[in-house]
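To: structure subgroup
Subject: Chain for Friday's discussion

All,

I'm putting the inputs and outputs inline so they're searchable in the archive.
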Amino acid sequence: MIAPNQWFDDFQKNMSDLLSKTPAADIERNVKALMAQTFARMDLITREEFDVQTDLLARALERVEALEARVQALEQQLDKTE
């Protein structure tokens, strides 16, 4: 008697062999190529690039807030001297 894991492995191998010999394999390759081409035209970015830009934006916003507070303090000093 064949062990259940061996039977599943054999079944998977047989199905893979069968699918590789059918038009389904060609269709899969064509769909993958079409999707890759479409994604290339969409000008997408990677998750790492997105995270870097998010981090840069957060730091820029912090700097803007600090500069706004500084300008407000300077304006208050100017109002006191006038």
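Points worth raising on Friday:
The chain has a mean pLDDT of 86.
The CA atoms of residues 23 and 33 lie 15 Å apart.

D.
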